[in-house]
Write a structure and sequence with these properties.
Largest sheet of chain A: 8 strands, antiparallel
Helix content of chain B: over 70%
Number of helices of chain B: 9
Helix content of chain A: 25-40%
Strand content of chain A: 25-35%
Strand content of chain B: under 5%
Number of helices of chain A: 10
Low-confidence stretches of chain A: 473-478
Largest interface: A-B, 48 and 46 residues
Mean pLDDT of chain B: 87
Oligomer: heterodimer
Distance between the termini of chain B: 32 Å
Number of strands of chain B: 0
Radius of gyration of chain A: 36 Å
Low-confidence stretches of chain B: none
Chain lengths: 478, 272
C-alpha cells in the first residue's frame, strides 16, 4: 500500500500538468500581488485600498493577498513546486544517464551494430557506389546543418555524452537555490544600526533599532563591533556624486580593524558573511548633563531623522529619558534640529547655523520647557541640573546583513545558468549511417535520434535524403 | 535616428510586399535594408554614448533604442546565417519599428548616471535584458509566420511563405529562440539579484519589476515544459509565444509607468 501511494504521489509530483499549473498559479498570484498594496493590514496603503475596494477586500484579505509572498497559499505552492522539482530533477537525471550511455555506445558503433539496430532505411539509386552514397548523405546532412565524420564505412554525427546533463544540472541547481534561500532566511540576521561619528557599537541585538533574526542565527558566534569613523555629507568619486557617505570600520573582538571603507550606493562593505549598506542618514545632537557644581554627570547622543511632515523638518528617533536611581522616569527630553528651507520644502541637510530645539516634558506629558539652543548653550532642568548642547553632527543608519549563504546563492545561480546554457548550446543528437548491399539493391541504413537543438527534423532529413539518393524511404520512426 | 526608423519601416514594407507577392529578391533586399538601418542607429547611439559617457541604459528613449538595436541585429544575423529565415522579418521588423517609433516620441533629455546606477552590473544586467528580448522577439516572429502558414493550410499564404523552412523546423526554431530568451532572461534576473544585493543589501524584494520579470520567466518556463515534456507542437504553442511577447515588453518598458517601483530610476523617474 505504501509503495502504491508513494508511486501515485511521485507520478503526481512529476507530472508536467502540476508543474505548469503551479507556475501559472504563482504567476497569476504574483500579478495580483503587484496590483494590490502589500503590507500590514494597519498600514496606510493597505487601509486606503481596502476602503476604496470594499467589494473585493474581504476576499483579498481572506486569501492573504496583502502579504502575498508570505501567505500560506503562496508558500504551500512554492513547497509543492520544490517537491515537484526534486522529482523532475531525479527523472531527468535518470533520462540523461540513459542518453549518455546511448551516446557513449554510439561512439563505438560499427557497421554491424548499425545494421542490427537501425530505424531508417532508404533504397539508393543503383548508379551510386557505397562511397558515393555516403558522400551524398554527408553533403545533404551538412546542407541541413549536421556535420558528419566518416570512419570505416560509417557516417557518424554523435554528440558528446556531456551534452545531455544541461537540464538535470539546471533543475537540481534551481532546487538547490530554493533550499539555499530557505536556509538563508533561517540563519540570517538583518537589521538597522544607527551610529554617530566616532561611535562604536557591539554587533549584538541590543545595538540594533530594527532587527530580524532567523531562528538558526547564532549570536554567540558573533564577536565584532561596528564603528562609524567619518561621515562626508557630499562625496564624489569618479566624477559622480555619491551622496552622503559614511566611512565604517568592522572591528574584531580585540578592537583590530578587519575592514574599513567608505559606503555608498553600489559600494557595500563586505567582511566575511557580513554586508553593510548605508540606506539612510540624519543628524545627531550630543548632550551633556551637568550638576550644580558644573561637573558632567552624563552624556548622551540623540539621533534625529529628517521628516518633511514635521513642523521644523526633523523628528527625534526616540526621546531621551532621565530616570532616578530606582529607574523611575523623571523627565522626557525631545531634541530636534530646525532645518533651513528651500522653497516650500525643508533642506534635508545640516542647517547653516545649526541649533537644537529642546523640549522637556514630564512623564505625564506636561510641557516643562521648550527652548532653542546653539552648541555650547544649556537648558536648566531642575534643582540646578543643566542640559547642555555640545554639538550637532551627522549619524548614519547602517543596514547590516549577516548571511553566509549569499555567495552560495550566487554560485547556485551561476550553476543553474551553466546548466541552461548547456541545454541551449549543445546538440543532443545521434546519427549513424552505413550502406548495406542486399537483394533489393544498395540501401542506406541509419539510426537517428534528434533529442535537442538540432537544426533540422527527422522528417526533413528523411525527405532530403530520399530525394538526394533518388529513391523511396522505408523505415519508420522510433 | 529618423534615418534608421525610415529604413526599418521601409524594410517592414518590403518584407510584407516581398512575402505577399512572392518576390524573394525583395525579401532578401529587405534584410539588407534592415542591416543598413543599423548603421545610422549605431552611429546615433555611439555619438550619444560619447557625449553622455554612458551607454543606452537609462530612460525610455535609450532603453527602447537598445531593445530595437538588439532585435534587429539578432534578426539580421539569423537571416544572414540562414537565409530561409528572411521572411520572419515580417513578424520581427514591425516590433522593431514600433519600439523605435515609441522611442522617438519619448523624451530624449540627457540623463546622467546617478550614484545608484553607477555600477558595472548596470551594463551586464541591461545587456542581458536586451539580448533576451531580441531572442524572444525572434521567437515571436517565427511564431507569427508559423500561425499564418498554418492558418493558410496550403493556401495562398502557405505558398507565399514556402521559402521558409518546413513547419516543424520553424516550430523547433521558435522553441530554440524561446530557450535562448529563457536563458538570457534568467541571466538578467540573476545579475539583477546580485546587483540589488550589492546596491540595496537585498537580492530580492518582490518589487513590481522583479515580480513581473519572474512572471515572464515562468510564462516561458511553462512554454518550454509544454514543448519539451508534453510534446506540444504547432499552432497553440505558437500562439503561446505570440501572446507572451506583449507581456515581456510590458515588463521591460511598461512597469515603471504603471507601478510604484524602486527601479523607476532607470527610466528617469522617481524611485518609489
Amino acid at each position: 500500500v505504501i509503495r502504491r501511494v508513494w508511486r501515485g504521489a511521485a507520478r503526481f509530483l512529476k507530472s508536467v500538468g502540476l508543474v505548469s499549473g503551479l507556475l501559472a498559479f504563482i504567476g497569476v498570484w504574483s500579478m495580483a500581488a503587484t496590483l494590490i498594496p502589500q503590507g500590514d493590514v494597519a498600514s496606510r496603503d493597505v487601509a486606503d485600498w481596502a476602503a476604496s475596494h470594499p467589494a473585493v477586500e474581504p476576499l483579498v484579505a481572506a486569501l492573504g493577498l496583502h502579504q502575498a509572498f508570505t501567505a500560506i497559499t503562496f508558500l504551500a505552492c512554492v513547497f509543492v513546486l520544490a517537491l515537484s522539482m526534486a522529482m523532475c530533477s531525479w527523472q531527468r537525471t535518470k533520462a540523461a544517464t540513459g542518453r549518455a550511455r546511448t551516446l557513449r555506445k554510439a561512439r563505438r558503433a560499427d557497421e554491424s551494430s548499425i545494421i542490427g539496430d537501425h530505424d531508417l532505411e532508404i533504397v539508393c539509386d543503383p548508379a551510386l557506389s557505397a562511397s558515393e552514397v555516403l558522400s551524398v548523405v554527408s553533403g545533404t546532412l551538412t546542407h541541413l546543418g549536421i556535420k558528419t565524420k566518416e570512419r570505416d564505412g560509417v557516417l557518424a554525427a554523435v554528440s558528446s555524452p556531456l551534452s545531455v546533463w544541461g537540464s538535470p544540472i539546471f533543475h537540481w541547481a534551481l532546487l538547490a537555490l530554493m533550499v539555499v534561500i530557505l536556509v538563508g532566511s533561517l540563519q540570517r540576521s538583518d537589521g538597522l544600526m544607527a551610529l554617530t561619528v566616532g561611535q562604536t557599537k557591539v554587533d549584538a541585538p541590543a545595538s540594533y533599532g530594527r532587527l530580524r533574526t532567523g531562528p538558526l542565527h547564532d549570536w554567540s558566534a558573533v564577536h565584532r563591533s561596528i564603528r562609524l569613523d567619518a561621515f562626508e555629507p557630499d562625496f564624489r568619486a569618479e566624477g559622480i556624486d555619491r551622496g552622503p557617505t559614511p566611512t565604517v570600520s568592522v572591528l574584531d573582538e580585540a578592537g583590530n580593524v578587519i575592514q574599513k571603507q567608505r559606503i555608498y550606493p553600489n559600494m557595500m562593505l563586505h567582511a566575511g558573511s557580513l554586508s553593510i549598506n548605508a540606506p539612510a542618514y540624519g543628524l545627531s545632537a550630543t548632550l551633556s548633563i551637568a550638576d550644580t557644581s558644573g561637573a558632567e554627570i552624563a552624556r548622551s547622543v540623540e539621533i534625529i531623522d529628517f521628516s518633511q511632515a514635521a513642523p521644523e523638518g526633523t523628528v527625534p528617533v526616540e526621546p531621551l529619558k532621565l530616570s532616578d536611581g530606582a529607574g523611575n522616569i523623571l523627565l522626557l527630553i525631545s531634541v530636534t534640529v530646525p532645518l533651513d528651507r528651500t522653497g516650500d520644502r525643508f533642506a534635508e541637510w545640516m542647517p547653516n547655523a545649526p541649533t537644537a530645539r529642546v523640549v522637556v516634558t514630564s512623564p505625564t506629558g506636561e510641557s516643562l520647557s521648550d527652548s532653542v539652543v546653539s552648541p555650547g548653550q544649556g537648558v536648566s532642568l531642575s534643582d540646578g541640573v543643566v542640559l547642555r548642547l555640545v554639538d550637532i553632527g551627522w549619524y548614519a543608519r547602517l543596514s547590516l546583513v549577516d548571511d553566509w549563504t549569499t555567495p552560495v546563492l550566487y554560485a547556485t545561480m551561476v550553476i543553474a545558468m551553466i546548466g541552461l546554457a548547456i541545454t541551449l548550446l549543445f546538440r543532443q543528437q545521434l546519427l549513424l549511417a552505413t550502406v548495406v548491399e542486399g537483394p533489393e539493391g544498395r540501401r542506406l541504413v541509419a539510426k537517428l535520434r534528434l533529442w535537442r537543438n538540432t537544426p533540422t527534423s527527422r522528417s526533413e532529413i528523411t525527405s532530403e535524403l530520399t530525394t538526394a539518393l533518388g529513391n523511396d524511404a522505408k523505415g519508420g520512426t522510433s | 535616428m529618423w534615418v534608421a526608423l525610415t529604413l526599418y519601416a521601409a524594410a517592414t514594407v518590403m518584407f510584407i510586399f516581398g512575402v505577399t507577392f512572392v518576390r524573394e529578391k525583395l525579401t532578401r533586399r529587405a534584410v539588407f535594408v534592415s542591416a543598413l538601418g543599423l548603421v545610422p542607429q549605431i552611429a546615433a547611439l555611439g555619438v550619444r554614448w560619447a557625449r553622455l559617457g554612458h551607454g543606452p541604459y537609462i530612460g525610455y528613449y535609450e532603453l527602447a533604442n537598445a531593445l530595437t538595436l538588439c532585435t534587429v541585429v539578432f534578426f539580421v544575423v539569423a537571416a544572414w546565417r540562414n537565409p530561409r529565415l528572411s521572411a520572419t522579418g515580417m513578424g520581427i521588423m514591425p516590433v522593431a519599428v514600433l519600439l523605435l517609433a515609441g522611442a522617438m516620441l519619448a523624451s530624449k533629455a540627457d540623463m546622467p548616471i546617478t550614484a545608484g546606477l553607477a555600477s558595472y552590473w548596470l551594463f551586464v544586467h541591461v545587456a542581458f535584458a536586451n539580448l533576451a528580448f531580441a531572442a524572444l522577439a525572434a521567437s515571436f516572429g517565427l511564431a507569427v509566420v508559423f500561425v499564418i502558414r498554418r492558418r493558410s493550410d496550403g493556401g495562398k499564404w502557405a505558398q507565399r511563405l514556402k521559402k521558409l523552412p518546413p513547419q516543424d523546423v520553424v516550430d523547433e526554431l521558435t522553441a530554440r529562440f524561446v530557450l535562448a530568451g529563457f536563458l538570457l532572461w534568467g541571466i538578467m534576473i540573476a545579475t539583477g539579484a546580485i546587483w540589488a544585493n550589492e546596491s540595496w543589501g537585498r537580492y530580492w524584494s518582490w518589487d513590481p519589476i522583479e515580480t513581473w520579470s519572474l512572471i515572464v520567466w515562468f510564462i516561458y518556463a511553462i512554454y518550454l515544459h509544454l514543448r519539451f515534456r508534453l510534446r506540444w507542437r504547432g499552432e497553440r504553442l505558437a500562439w503561446f509565444a505570440i501572446v507572451a511577447m506583449p507581456i515581456t515588453l510590458f515588463c521591460l518598458l511598461g512597469i515603471p509607468t504603471v507601478f510604484k517601483t524602486i527601479h523607476a530610476g532607470y527610466m528617469g523617474g522617481v524611485e518609489g
